[in-house]
Structures are given as structure tokens and as C-alpha cells.
Amino acid sequence: MVNGTRCVALFLLVGVAARLVFAVNDDLLPNGDFEQAPDRSKLNGTRVMDPHAIPHWEISGFVEFIESGQQLEDMILPVPKGERAVRLGNDATIKQKLSVTRHAYYSISFGAARTCAQAEKLILSSPPDSGILPIQTVYTSSGWDTYSWAFKAKNTSVWFSIHNPGHEDDPACGPIIDHIAIKALPPPHHTKDSMLRNGNFEDGPYIFPNTPYGVLVPPVLEDAHSPLPGWMIMADTKVVKYVDAKHHAVPKGNHAVELVAGLECAMLQEVHTVPGRSYRLSFSVGDGATGCDGRLVVDAYAGREIVKVPYESRGTGGHKRAVLEFVAVANVTRVVFQSNNHHEARRHAVRPCHR
User: Where is the DUF642 domain (predicted)?
Assistant: First the structure.
């Protein structure tokens, strides 16, 4: 039987699974917060002129070193934590060599803020893996979002890079990057009494302490390299959000997933099934106590069946159970969750509510 997926206001989770331990610590990369500044002699204004000027990093292209509250032209550039960050302008890259465990899975979490371009995107890579992360949508009132990406280490020493492929009229135009962290992930595995892998969402990307907005998981079409092990995110530019129980109302366990993009994004997993056999998918729908009130609706699909689960949110937390019974029609069945609607929280006018 398929019985694991719990949803909170568009969160999904299920029991708690034992974690695998890897040699790498889950924390900031060396100088991942850019608080170790380059020597002033290696700067031309804010632009970094020496490829090795920023401690622990190697750069190329138009990279700027930004300090909190700094004003460039008519814009004040924010830094979410600490005092310093970098801005990636035209064809800019920052990279660092990492010591990892060969063939292990890792997720990267980092903060990003859009500055001027409307369709900014970043390319993250650790050869041979790479991914394009769209960052044009803002999900927080501060303008800073935390994104995640995952890769599988090919060797014990690998390069990790963040690249802005943009070519704007203003060469400095590009996203600000700060607080880059790494976390070891277990391979996708089944939780107890469930055919779903990571159905309780206890395995996921690094969430920075004291960060109330969680981590965004961008479109991922390969579950083996997902920051949310076992799950794929199907969308053009939208995301789902990975959250913790410290800052959100999670019905069980420590983590859940918010569906923040309405019908523009779906979260899915492919499950091995036996044609003609009956299955039962159970999950929870609710709100994460984030101030969103109104009618929430989650659509769940499996086989040829669909269930629409409404939930009247008061924005203060709570959840209810839901079930989808289906008969498998193939050896592999897609289990899909999607938010049917979304609007904005009254207390945070620019932050979308999560269904």
C-alpha cells in the first residue's frame, strides 16, 4: 500500500525516517558568507579585479563585492545576513573546490536577490552535473530567497560554481549572492510502511538557522539529483518550498513542503506498482501558520484517479487527512501533488500564500 505523504497548507509529509551519516558537515562553505573580504588593492570600486582576491573563492567575469547598505546609482543593495555579499554581473562566475565523498549526494543552499534584470537565472554546476535556476519570482517580503540545488560527487575533490550567463547593457546588472552552504543527502530511499521515497520529507536541503522562509526547490526533472530526494518538481520557472517545524506548523516530524506556485508547478514521484492492484495514498493538507487565510485546495493524482482536497485556512496552523484510492494501470505510477490556487498573505503583501 502507498501510505505516506502528508501535506501542510500545501505541505506534504509522512513519518520520520532514520538518516544516513556522511563525512561532510552540513554548514556554510569556507567563506560562504563572504565576510572575509578581498584586499582593497584588488578592487576597482566594487568590482573584484583579481581572480583569487576573495578568500576561498575563484572568480571570473564581472563580479562585485558588496557591503550592506551600499548604494549603487539609485539603488541600495541589501545584504540579508552579516555585512558582505557578491553580485554576479555579465558572464560572472564564482567557484570553489570542495572535499567530498565520492559518489555521495549533496545539496547546495544559497541566498539570492534580484537587482535589475527581470528574467535573471543562474547556472549551478559541479561537473558533470549542472542546472539552470530561474530567480525572477520573489517569494519573500525582503526580496531575498534561499534556493537549493543538488549534485552527485564524481570524485573526492570537485569544483562547485555559480554562474550568471546574462549579458545586460549594464555589465554590473545581476543577482546578489550570499550564504552558500552544503549538506550531504542520503540516496532516495523508502520510509517505513510506505512505497514512497522520502514521503515524510525529512531528507532535504540545508535550512539556515533562524531563517523563517524555508528553502526553494526549483524545477528538477531527475529525482536522483533532487535537493528533495525522491521527488521531482515539474515547472517552467516556479518552485516548491521546503520548510521546518521551527518556523511552520508541521503536522508530524520536522519538515514539510509548501506548494507556493498554484497550477504552474507540480511535485511528483514515480512509484513501482503492479497493474490491476489497488493502492491507497494518504496525506495531510493544511496551513503552515504563515498568516494565509481563505480556501486552500490541493489536487492529488495517481493512476487514473484524482482527488481535490479543500481546506479552510485561518492562517494559524492546522491540517486534515485525505485519501486517494486508485488501481494501478502500469508498472510505474506517477503520484502528483499540485496546488489548485494561491493568493497573498494579508500580513506580507508581496509573499504568496501556500495552498
Answer: 27-183, 195-346
Domain parsing of the chain, residue ranges: 27-185
Q: Which three cell numbers stand for residue 187?
A: 540516496
Distance CA 286, CA 254 (A): 15
User: Is residue 350 pLDDT above 70, yes or no?
Assistant: no
Spatial CA neighbour of 106 closest among 194, 26, 52, 42? 26
CA angle 337/339/344 to nearest 5° reads: 155
Question: Considering the chain, what is the average pLDDT of its residues?
Answer: 85
| Cα angle value 56/59/65 (rounded, 5°) | 85
SS3 call for 275 = coil
Cα end-to-end distance, the chain, whole Å: 26
The string of DSSP letters for 271-338 reads EE--TT-EEEEEEEEEE-SSS--EEEEEEEEETTEEEEEEEEE-SS-EEEEEEEEEE--SSEEEEEEE
User: How many CB atoms are closer than 10 A to CB 58?
Assistant: 16
Output DSSP code: residue 167.
-
Rg (alpha carbons) of the chain, rounded to whole number: 21
CA atoms within 13 A on the CB side of 311: 34
pLDDT for res 306: 96
Please say whether the beta carbons of 315 and 345 come within 8 A.
yes
Question: What single string gives the DSSP state of each residue in 151-202?
Answer: EE-SSSEEEEEEEE----SSTT-S-EEEEEEEEEEPPP-BPTT-SSBTTT--
Q: Read off the pLDDT of each residue in 256-284 and give the average, rounded to a whole number.
A: 93
CA 339 to chain CA centroid, Å, is 17
Handedness of CA 327, 330, 331, 333 (dihedral sign): negative
- In the chain, the amino acid numbered 143 is G
